[in-house]
């Protein structure tokens, strides 16, 4: 069995996906199933454990919380629009995570966080 080699770019992608998934699951059980869309060869639990590991880095936990809050505000304003199609926005995994990440990266200035 080969271990996945995490890079800075993969870590950033994972944190973006985690913020989106956590926002989507607010008030419900956290379901990491959508991660398979961006990390198809990595078990969900391995990706989840990587998020836990990254949050232990000083500043990352606060950054992730700010990113999640910022995304939540933007997502609630734009979900199920022409800009961010999301017909079943209450479903934890039935959405296009890649499109959501692209939208997040286009409209949220993460360096200002």
- Uncertain stretches: none
* Helical amount: 40-55%
Query: What structural category do the secondary elements indicate?
Result: mainly alpha
Residue share in β-strands: under 5%
Compute the CA-based radius of gyration.
14 Å
Descriptive overview:
There is one protein chain. Helix content is 52%, strand content 0%. The protein is mostly helical and 113 residues long. Helix 1 (8-24) packs across helix 3. The model has no long low-confidence stretch (mean pLDDT 95).
Summarize the structure.
This protein is mainly α. Helices cover 52% and strands 0% of the residues.
Could you list some keywords that capture this structure?
113 residues, mainly alpha
How are the elements arranged and paired?
Layout: H1 8-24, H2 44-55, H3 60-78, H4 97-107
Helix pairs in contact: 1-2, 1-3, 1-4
């Amino acid at each position: 069995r080969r271990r996945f080699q995490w890079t800075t770019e993969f870590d950033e992608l994972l944190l973006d996906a985690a913020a989106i998934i956590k926002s989507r699951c607010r008030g419900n059980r956290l379901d990491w199933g959508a991660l398979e869309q961006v990390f198809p060869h990595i078990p969900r639990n391995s990706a989840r454990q990587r998020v836990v590991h990254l949050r232990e880095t000083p500043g990352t936990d606060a950054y992730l919380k700010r990113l999640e809050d910022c995304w939540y505000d933007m997502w609630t304003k734009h979900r199920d629009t022409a800009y961010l199609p999301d017909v079943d926005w209450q479903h934890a995994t039935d959405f296009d995570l890649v499109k959501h990440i692209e939208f997040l990266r286009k409209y949220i200035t993460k360096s200002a966080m």
